[in-house]
Amino acid sequence: MRWWPRSIGGRLAALSALATVVALVVAGWAIAGVLERFVTRGIDQRLDAQIALLASTVGADGRIDGRQVRTHRGLLAMGRDWRWLIRTPREVVGDAGLATMTVRAMPRHHGRDHRPGPAGGPPMPVEPAEAPVPLDGIGADGVVLHARRHVLATTGGVVTITVAAPQAVIAQPIREAVTPLLLTLAILGGLLAAVTWVQLRIGLRPLRSLRDAVAALRAGRIDRIDEDQPTELRPLAIELNALAADTQAALATARLSAANLAHALKTPVATLALAMGDDPVRRRQVDRIDATIRHHLGRARAGGSRPPSTPLAPALADLAQVVTRLHADRGIAVIHDIDPDLTVRLDPHDLDELAGNLIDNAARHARRHVRVTADRGERMVTLRVIDDGPGIPAADRARATEPGVRLDERGDGHGFGLSIVRDITTLHGGTLILEETPGGGLTAIVTLPA
Fold first, then answer.
1. pLDDT for 141 beyond 80
2. What is the pLDDT of residue 128?
3. Helices in 366-441 by DSSP H: which ranges?
4. 85, 57 contact by CB (below 8 A)
5. Interatomic CA distance for residues 160 and 261, integer angstroms
6. Do 359 and 320 contact (CB within 8 A), yes or no?
7. Average pLDDT of 14-24?
C-alpha cells in the first residue's frame, strides 16, 4: 500500500486522525439528531396544545361552535405560516389551503397503513386516533409544513383537526445550534490532534534513543546499549548487546588468525627474498607474493574490529608530505585542503593505507600536481584525489580495481593499490568510484563513514 506511511509515527498519526474524524462526525451526527428530536418534540407539544384548543370547539354532535373559534383565534395565531383546519362532514373552518396539503410522510397508526390524502380530511380507512398523528407535507403555496392531525369520532360523523407549523421553525434553531456545535467539534479535533502529536513524540522517544544508542555502538563511542529500556524495547536491547558481543568475539578471533598468519609468513617470505639474490624476475614474483599477503592482511585488519574516529586532515597532510618527497625528482606537488574538523570512522593504519595508495597512485601518473579534497554529507565523508595525468579509459576503470591488474606496465607497482582501496572502503560501508577529471586526468572518489 503506497499510500500507507512507512513511518510508525506516521501510521499512528494516520490512525489517530482517522479515528478522531470518525468519532467527531458520529458525535456531531448524534448530537444533531438529538437536537432535532428535542426541537421537534417542543413544536409538537405546541401543535398538540392547539389541537386540544380546537377540539374544545367541537360538540358531541360534530358541530363547530363558531363563537368559541373566534374567541380562540388570538391563541391560535402562533406566527407566520402557522395554520389550522377543522373539517367535519358538514363544514370546513380554518385555512382551506391546508386541506389540499401534499402529504410527504405519514406514519403507521394502530397497526394499519394510512393512505395519503388531503391533510384536512381523514385518510382511508378512517380510525379515530387516541393521540395526534404527525404529518410532513407541502402546502398549496409551496411552504414546507410540519403538521399534526387528530381524528374525533362524534355522533355527527368523523371530525378531523389539522394544525401545521412551517418546517423552518424546526430547521432554524437547529442551524443556530449546529453552527457553534461544529465550531466546538473543530476546536476539539484540533486539541486532540495536538495531544496526539505530543503523545507520539513522548511515546516514540525511547525508539529514537535506542536508534542513537545503536549508532553510537556502531561508531565505537560505546561498548554496549543501556538495557534500562521500556518493557517493549528491553528484549531488543538485550538481543542487540548479545549480537554485538558475538560479533566482537568473532572479529577478535579473525584478528588473531590474521596476526598469526602474518607472523607465520613473514619469515619464509623474507628468507625467500634473500635467496632470490639479484634475479629480477624471481624477485618481482616474491614482491608480488609479499604484496598479496599485505593486501589480504589489510582486508582482515579492516574488518577485524570496530574502528575509532580518526581526524582526516593530519593524516592526509603527512601522506601528502611523504608522497611529495617520493616524487620530488619529477616535481609533483600534492595540494590538500581539508577541514580540520572532518573525521572518519576508520582505523588510522587503514586510513594511511587507503589514502596513501590513492595519493601515491595519482602522483605516479600525474604531470604536475595532485589535489586532495574532502567534504562531509549527512553520514558519509567524500574524499577526492584528483590528478592531471592521462587518466583511465572508461572501459578499463572497473578492471583497474581488480587485484594484481596493472594497466601501465611501467614503474615498480604491483597492481594492488586500487584493489586494496576498494576492499577497505567496501568493508567500511563506503564506495570507490573512478571518474574522468575535467580537462584530463583521473578523479578517485571515496566515501567513508563520518
1. no
2. 47
3. 397-400, 417-427
4. no
5. 114
6. yes
7. 84
Question: What pLDDT was estimated at residue 399?
Answer: 65
H helices present in 303-441, as ranges: 312-326, 348-365, 397-400, 417-427
What are the two backbone dihedrals, phi and then psi, of residue 280, each rounded to the nearest 5 degrees?
Answer: -65, -35
Give tens-digit pLDDT for 147-195.
888 888 888 888 888 888 888 888 888 888 888 888 888 888 888 888 8
- Give the pTM: 0.44
Residue pair 140/97 in contact (Cβ under 8 Å)? The answer is yes
- Min mean pLDDT across 26-40, 106-120, 350-364 is at 106-120
Strand extents, DSSP E, 190-317: 309-311
Which residues touch 37 (CB under 8 Å, ≥6 apart)?
Answer: none
Smallest CA-to-CA distance from 186 within 17, 24, 33 is with 24
Higher pLDDT, residue 114 or 151: 151
CB neighbours of 247 closer than 8 A, spacing ≥ 6?
Answer: none
Q: What is the CA radius of gyration of the chain?
A: 47
Rounded Cα gap, residues 257 and 299, in angstroms: 13
What pairing do the DSSP bridges indicate for beta strands 309-311 and 157-166?
unpaired
- Partners of 105 in the beta sheet? 136
pLDDT for 115:
40
Q: How sure is the predictor about 5, in pLDDT bands with cuts at 50, 70 and 90?
A: low
- Distance between CA atoms of 143 and 98, rounded to whole angstroms? 11
Q: What is the DSSP letter of 116?
A: P
Question: Are the C-beta atoms of residues 86 and 64 closer than 8 Å to each other?
Answer: yes
Q: Cell numbers of 137, please?
A: 407535507
**43, 146 Cβ separation under 8 angstroms:** yes
